[in-house]
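Chapter review: from sequence to fold.
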Amino acid sequence: MKALLLVLLAEVCLASLVPEKEKNPQYWRNQAQQTLKIALKLQQLNTNVAKNIILFLGDGMGVSTVTAARILKGQLQNMKGEDSLLEMDKFPYVALSKTYNTNAQVPDSAGTATAYLCGVKANEGTVGVSAAVTRAQCNTTAGNEVTSVLKWAKGAGKSVGIVTTTRVNHATPSAAYAHSANRDWYSDNEMPPEAIQQGCKDIAQQLFDNIPDIEVIMGGGRKYMFPKNTSDVEYRDDKYRGTRLDGKNLIDVWRDKKPKDKNAQYVWNRSDLLSLNLMEVDFLLGLFEPMDMMYELDRNVQTDPSLTEMVQVAIKILQRNPRGFFLLVEGGRIDHGHHEGKAKHALYETVEMDRAIGQAGGMTSLEDTLTVVTADHSHVFTFGGYTPRGNPIFGLAPMHSDVDKMPFTSILYGNGPGYKIVAGERENVSTVDYAHANYQAQSAVPLRQETHGGEDVAIFAKGPMAHLLHGVHEQNYIPHVMAYAACIGQNTDHCRSGAHHSIVGPLPFLSTLASVILLKFLF
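The token string follows.
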């Protein structure tokens, strides 16, 4: 009898979780009909030339991360969360990206960055080079370099920018400008002597040598720009001192490469950044931390800008160019949160990147700006456990394990540092603060660092030619679409003369195609 009462009570509780409007089937019919009307409008394709391209890259942002972040965003707004919308959810076109590296089933962030920025798949651990390059072997690099969509945009006269929450010489941003057999060669201090002797350059040096006129660079990574043992401007700790063995101050190198009639500003804190007169800034270098930027939950709001603030500044500078711009934005610490098993950090980083996506959308137009949101790879992150509607995303599943009789959180990892055995049993999560930002969610296999996942990741797209991202694609297809839409790189044959500068209108190949079809019909 007691068991029956408990079952009935549970049913009543679950029923109470359903919003009253959702009990009426007409609510769902009306919602579906409205979605259908929006979908039918998509038959009128946006075939304009993309004056601007913005690529948002959520490092490690697999589909389960997107879903959990959507729920978190809603719950932060005092809603249940499941029916909330991320900014990226509002994009009309969604595709899947196959993320494998040429030599890896489950990829890393370097080989994938080469794919979605340079248009060719590559080996894990290498950036801006083809699969002919072996990781950490400098002498395999020469002749195997590949260029990125950022470089193609710069070659077409556009302004370009890089914004990241990691180091500006980390895997994702470095594929935009560097060619390196090893993603870990941040400065010459991290390179083996033979690599330097063979002529390879560290990634920080390449940032300022390879494409010296990048208009906007913002993120972390200060210590790789200064001579070894140089004190950091913000922290006294030895681990934040400069690393360079060649004695160079790359901030000075960056300044010296700028034309004398241009205004180049270097900033290292939020207040200096936000006090700039952006109408007068031609080049901006912002390095806000010695290494990666702080997690959003830990960010010092006085000294470090948010990703949204950096994106706003970047677009204001870049959009002054009448020929348009290319901007790479990386929410890079989503990945780090997952590696540490700290799902709360990973999901708050995702929500912040989504806020930046909304900021960019408000500053640009669908008519002339192609915006793509995607990830480089996934993680072995999941959430489940038959949780009821509105369950706190960092909360417990509604039942205990029927094996060890203990509670468990909805969020779990396949492997990672959250594996804990206490007195011969799985740790009882009710004895710890599982909602804490630094709580490491339980994992099935013990590892110091949780690993990437190998499944496909989503691609969200809006703006000119966004419909070309429409199915299951190889990851290296992405920059080819961006180039085609903007009439840059090798994809210019279909463009009118001068179209890749500032003209916005239907791409001529479609009208040509229509003419061919009409002629066949008539004759």
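Two observations follow directly from the output. DSSP finds 15 helices and 17 strands in the chain. The first strand starts at residue 52 and ends at 58.
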